[in-house]
Design brief:
The structure holds two protein chains of two kinds. Chain A is mainly α. Chain A contains 24 helices and two strands. The two termini of chain A are 45 Å apart. Chain B is built from six helices and no strands. In chain B, 30% of the residues are buried. The chains are: A mainly alpha, B mainly alpha. At the A-B interface, helix 4, helix 7, helix 8, helix 19 and helix 24 of A face helix 2, helix 3, helix 4 and helix 6 of B. Chain B: Its main location: membrane.
Chain lengths: 568, 184
């Protein structure tokens, strides 16, 4: 007999999509059934996430899997941070799923458009080859065979798309809810494995090229993370986060620093912090629009979540590490945004702004106070929504204008005014124009920085304002070129792009843009929620007490006794 | 607080070191197959490291009737390694498939450069703008002349092609002039 309680909800966001993934794989011949199952699964996931947001506000909800007592068994923990991240991720996942379903349906009946696009693409290739010839360099090795490209490009193979997407959703949820380091690793692996498949969908030359870099970098980050888990276990005899939080302060400081840096290195690659960020703008833009959108919104943020979680919960404040993180945050912001300014392709431009804005979140984490953590959490929530919305809009721009290169776009403000609004709102939100949520998040970070008052924090404050302005510059440039400059002949004559955007694609994009605006409207309660989340994160005992409600019996995990005996 | 008394075996530690070193060396190669072999070496090194974290080998971790004289090994590290091995296996299969696909497409499985990135790097080396921008062209001696020039261009183009949207054109012209100013 199952006893129903709040804890019953916690495993649902992991179990439901995994179960649905299996079903959709088994029913791969029935596209319609697949769609229904996927949507239902994500709706259920969203429902449980919303319930968890409410429940976690009363105190973290802890579920012990299989009823093995905590230090030995596996536990899932939904505290405020996990719950709010889960809810926003699910909303984003649902919108992207809707978008990709519509795209799949539209694309199956659009042979001629694909040909037109292939033509443009071939032309672009000629341009590049010419440029290469001018520069006197050899491009031969990079030119990929066309024949394959034409038939497979841009098509979403529905049969594997749904199961993989659902596995990705399950992996994201597992990472957010994991109550121990090893399950965090497993959650990461689930979502990364799904992301490898999604990134290389169709196996075209472009995607294989981008995918090989992405996969190798992600594999390396996972190994680094795993080594960190191993070291944490060797030092403390546990991988349970709550137990680690109790034991790590007693570990030798240099060993602890080693563990901390190893974990930060692993998460830093996943979150794309500056010296470890080069893989991101290379790999994301080649994927299909909805895939890029969901990656941009979620994958790096899972890394940021892991950094917030481990930094606040496990490791006692360490000024040296915080200072390093501050410098890296500054470098991430500036290098990322300078990269964005140089780009000519909108997708790449947005990928660079994505890297750049990770810097804001790291800024918040590195300041390490309650206020700074609250601002970082709010910023993560804002950024997931707005970055995904922007990538979906760029998918629409690509359909309408036939390209993502700013040189070949133009006049869209007149040709598609609705699209212009959809681009303009999240773009201004990302740049941090008041009164949108991006502005509120940035103000929170700046206030925390000013309150910190150290010279480095001031440098960061100035750096983040400069980054904000440069973001505005890059996005306004994209706006000018794509929407305001005189339209190229191709676009006006309708030789490339579609005259009308399908409603199924505009719908989810508009909903997501609306959701990002709603974040602005409910910013007050949301920010208060983030502050409460930050409070429980930084007070150092709420999480541990939620996992060990009785307080006692937490030091003696079974494995400790045996290993300490066993070593003689 | 319980401090684990786990003295690792020197041989295992050495093997872990060699596996990591060899793995790093292979990861730096260009061919995807070698990179994959490097990944396999490193993850096996990582697994061994976790095994060492669990202490020395002992009896099978089964609870039997009566007291055993030999202490049990730590089952948790073995469970974790087993999970990691399964994950590594799946990912190895995926990377092999990807390397094969790369070989199908290109005749080799080498990790390729980012074409777009190299293009932009070349443009930067020549100090050329990364995008064509008519507004940045030097057309006059002073800023005022350039602004007037840009404005004239727009006016002319309005006369020539009536199809272009007049308001947008002008807006872009003003914006462009400001851009020129800002860049100076």
């Amino acid at each position: 007999m199952i006893e129903w309680s709040a804890g019953t909800l916690v495993p649902l966001p992991v179990l439901v999509p995994l179960f649905a993934a299996g079903l959709t794989l088994a029913l791969h011949r029935h596209a319609r059934v697949q769609r229904v199952i996927s949507v239902l699964a994500l709706l259920l996931m969203m429902g449980s996430a919303a319930a968890l947001v409410v429940l976690a506000d009363q105190g973290a909800v802890v579920t012990v899997i299989g009823d093995w007592a905590v230090p030995v068994g596996i536990n899932l923990v939904a505290d405020r941070l996990s719950a709010i991240m889960l809810l926003v991720s699910t909303v984003v996942l649902l919108c992207v799923l809707w978008y990709s379903m519509a795209q799949g349906m539209v694309d199956s009946a659009a042979e001629d458009r694909a040909n037109a696009r292939a033509e443009v693409w071939a032309q672009g290739r000629q341009d590049r080859a010419r440029e290469a010839a001018e520069a006197g360099t050899e491009l031969g090795a990079d030119v990929d065979p066309e024949a394959d490209e034409n038939e497979q490009r841009e098509v979403l193979p529905i049969a594997i798309y749904h199961p993989t997407f659902l596995v990705l959703a399950a992996g994201v949820a597992a990472a957010f809810l994991a109550g121990d380091l090893f399950n965090l690793y497993v959650g990461f692996e689930i979502l990364l494995a799904a992301s490898y498949v999604l990134l290389t969908l169709g196996g075209t030359a472009d995607r294989i090229r981008a995918g090989s870099v992405y996969v190798v970098v992600a594999l390396l980050s996972s190994v680094v993370f795993l080594a960190g888990v191993g070291m944490a276990y060797a030092a403390t005899g546990t991988v349970n986060l709550a137990q680690l939080a109790e034991r790590l302060p007693d570990v030798d400081p240099s060993v602890r620093l080693g563990i901390q840096l190893l974990l930060l290195l692993g998460f830093g690659i996943k979150a794309a912090i500056f010296p470890l960020s080069a893989w991101l703008p290379d790999s994301y833009p080649t994927a299909p629009a909805p895939v890029t959108a969901v990656f941009a919104g979620l994958l790096t943020k899972v890394g940021v979540y892991a950094i917030i979680r481990t930094q606040t919960l496990l490791f006692p404040p360490n000024e040296a590490v915080d200072r390093v993180l501050l410098v890296l945050a500054l470098a991430t912001m500036l290098v990322g945004i300078l990269g964005a300014v140089a780009q000519d392709d909108v997708k790449r431009l947005l990928s660079f702004t994505l890297v750049s804005h990770i810097g804001y979140m790291i800024f918040g984490v590195a300041l390490a106070g309650e206020a700074a953590t609250a601002a970082a959490i709010f910023y993560v929530v804002h950024h997931i929504t707005v970055q995904t919305a922007l990538f979906l809009v760029v998918g629409l721009v690509e359909r309408r204008g036939g390209s993502t290169s700013l040189d070949r776009l133009g006049g869209l403000a007149k040709l598609a005014p609705g699209l212009a609004i959809l681009f303009f709102v999240p773009a201004m939100n990302l740049a941090g124009i008041p009164p949108l949520s991006g502005f509120l998040g940035k103000v929170g970070l700046l206030q925390a920085g000013v309150r910190d008052g150290s010279p480095l924090a001031w440098v960061l404050v100035v750096g983040s304002v400069v980054t904000s302005l440069l973001t505005l510059y890059a996005l306004v440039k994209a706006w000018n070129k794509a929407f305001w400059q005189a339209a190229p002949d191709d676009v006006v004559s309708g030789r490339v792009g579609e005259a009308r955007l399908p409603l199924g694609l505009v719908g989810p994009t508009a909903v997501l843009v609306g959701f990002s605006l709603a974040l602005t409207v409910v910013a007050g309660p949301l920010y208060a929620y983030a502050e409460r989340a930050a409070h429980t994160l930084t007070d150092g005992h709420s999480y541990v007490e939620a996992v060990f409600p009785d307080g006692g019996d937490r030091g003696i995990g079974e494995s400790d006794a045996t290993t300490s005996e066993g070593s003689h | 607080m319980i401090v684990l008394d786990t003295v690792p075996s020197a041989a295992l530690a050495l093997v872990v070191g060699v596996l990591f070193a060899g793995g790093v060396y292979l990861l730096l190669e260009r061919s995807l197959t070698r990179v994959l072999l490097g990944f396999v070496l490193i993850s096996n090194g990582g697994n061994l490291a976790i095994l060492m974290a669990g202490g020395r080998a002992g009896a099978a971790p089964l609870v039997r009737e009566g007291e055993s004289q030999v202490p049990m090994s730590d089952p948790l590290v073995q469970a974790m390694i087993l999970t990691a091995i399964v994950i590594t296996l799946a990912l190895t299969a995926f990377v092999l498939a990807m390397a094969y696909r790369s070989w199908q497409l290109n005749g080799h499985d080498e990790v390729q450069d980012d074409v777009e990135d190299r293009r932009i790097a070349r443009l930067a080396a020549r100090n050329a703008p990364s995008y064509s921008d008519a507004d940045t062209a030097e057309t006059g001696e002073t800023l005022d002349e350039e602004a007037a020039e840009v404005h004239d261009d727009i006016e002319e183009s309005l006369v020539v092609q009536e199809t272009a949207a007049p308001r947008e054109g002008r807006a872009e012209g003003t914006e462009g002039a400001e851009g020129t100013e800002a860049r100076r």
